Amino acid sequence: MAVDAAETTIDRSDEEGTGALKRVVGSRLLFFFIVGDMLGGGIYALVGEVGGEVGGAIWAAFLAAFVMASLTAFAYVELVTKYPRAAGAALYVNRAFKRPFVTFVVAFIVMASGLTSAATLARGFAGDYLTAFVDAPVVLSAIAVLVVLALVNLWGVGESVKLNVAFTLIEIVGLMIIVGVGIAALTGGGGGGSEVDLSRNLEFAGDSSPWLVVLAGASLAFYALIGFEDSVNLAEEVRRPSRAFPIALFGGLVAAGVISVVVTVVASAVVPTDALADSDGPLLEVIRRGPGGVSEELFSAIALFALANGALINMIMASRLMYGMSEEGILPPVFGKVLPGRRTPVVAIALSAVIAIVLAITGDLGDLADTTVLLLLLVFAVVNLSVLVLRRESVGHDHYVAPTALPALGAVVSLGLATQNEAGTWLRAGLLVALGLVLWAVNRALGGEGRRPDAEEITLDV
Hints:
The protein is an all-alpha fold. The chain has 18 helices and no strands. It has helices spanning 8-11, 27-39, 42-54, 58-82, 88-97, 100-125, 128-131, 138-155, 161-186, 210-221, 241-270, 273-277, 282-289, 296-327, 346-362, 365-389, 405-418, 423-445. Helix 2 (27-39) crosses helix 9 and helix 4 runs parallel beside helix 16. It is globular, with a radius of gyration of 22 Å.
């Protein structure tokens, strides 16, 4: 049932127990969810790829990416505290522009970014971290991982946010091990010997301006600092969202940014840049060359866990979003079919897995990460514009208001960073969007017009 924005659903959004979902998530659990989602597997997989772009000053690219991500974070905090509903970017864009086709395109791009991210992490899983246990072809291993994750998704995964805290702690333990090894190496703990060199953090690749090099590296490092946008989908389950989200989202972003910068400084100091760039498991190189006698198998297991968990979360998000669009009548109804007994969206899961597998076969780690970032940058640009458009709409409760310059700057930066991608990345992203347009056209040919989605009616299950 549609509810006017100024009525009960919004006015009482901060009360516990309001609406269909139970408000059980406090600011602390939300903080851990955001940190875990951001750290995920990106930092484990992409340190070397970024080093190949920027040189030893990997931290500079991550710091630049952090600043750029923060601009869009301000937009998300304003929107989620103003409209504490599930559906994220689709809801905000729908409220701002009230065009079902635009809403669909944004929702499909978000879904596609989940699949490219899952394929990225699957390729990272199948690299050097897996080699610590078994030597297998990367492509076949990535396919196997995605098939297993699809089966887990089909079986049904009811992960709670409290369980996510445990996942996050495991991922952080792995990164703290890296920091500990780095400190020991830098203070003369041996292991790595003459290769330990903190000054590598001031080296930039190529003959171009360091600013241009950092910008190119930031486009890729951005992948390791996305994930905060997923938290807005918990809006209906967060207690007092107008209070919880600003603290948790900004705090989580800062924590993930600091951890990422520290880890990259250590990695660059302990391992020569070329060795990092050549590795699919760059942080494992820190373990191998650093002191402390940390088990390579133990650290590889932690990294594999982080990568697989990140891929699974993205697969779940993508399949549920596809299912939700079918339920809204904007994708063919076949994607709304569920597996009897398990009640999981079988067709949506199957197509999600097929797309992710094709992506993993046709792109390497860097290509897929770039595509994920490009897709999300396009979404971020539209979300930032939505903030400005929605300033004319008031709601019946207090909410965070970002400084006006930040969403405007966020839109410009998002579009500017998107231009740093190569033609192949745009082609891959374009083909994914084209697939969405085909599905939209098929749905219309079958007579599915989709509900005209008043803003309050967007309830996509993401």
